Amino acid sequence: MSGQRFFYVTILNVAITIAEFIGGALSGSLSLISDAFHNLGDSFSIVFSYGAHKISQKRQNERNTFGYKRAEIIAAFLNAIALCLICLFLMVEAVKRISHPESINGSLMLIVAVVGLIANFVSAFLLNAGAKHNLNMRATYLHIMSDALSSVAIIVGGILIDIFGWVWIDPVVTILVAVYIFYESIPIIRQTNRILMQGAPVIDYQAIKHDLLQINGILGVHHVHAWSIDEHNVIFSAHVNLHDMKISEAQQIYSQIDDLMEKKYHMCHVTIQAETTRGEGEDMIYDRGNDIP
Predict the structure, then answer these.
(1) CA 166, CA 96: separation in Å to the nearest integer?
(2) Of 7, 97, 143, 277, which one has the greatest count of Cβ atoms within 10 A?
């Protein structure tokens, strides 16, 4: 996301937030006020996500030898958590409003929601490209799309209130939108949490072992580790048993391993430890009931 697009999306969200706070207060619509709080959170989220995006582009150094790519994963995780907390708050408030309904100006609620919908679609368009390949952008994009969905639901609610006087539809719309946003946020939390916890990507370890053993000179594979830096970059390390040979000969085998792991398994960084008989018979995934030595 370029700095210019970031600026436009932030301005749009601030404008929507102000409009919905005023419109919600004047119309008495809880869904508008709740959406205003949601948009306010989005404005902070966008700034936070953009900052994380810029940090992630810093080159690796002595302090962070793997670079700063996880800044975006942290931002995506926190943004998704914030969305879930906002949804829980909105559902509680909506239940209270169902028990104690208040009069609502459906026409004003409708006008403000239409303005918000247009602004949200513009923001979503600006963020769309980055959301396809980046968890951080996807979390921010989800914030914007959830706002757009909220606006659609509020528009429908405004029409029903205006025509039939169904004031109860306002908190019901709030609950439905909150449940949807919560549901969409959970997968992002799971994926980012797995990455932050050094969780292994979904790969076929037995297939990797089979392919490595096909390389001439490799007699065994054990003590394998794989983890993700972000959703695109996977690190792989393994111990391989070789015949007793010169380092220059082992280097040729290393090159074949690197080529295999990069092209077939899309690993961005491979570390191999060569051994002769050490580790023979050990499991591929190291497990002796304690942490990595």
Answers:
(1) 16
(2) 143
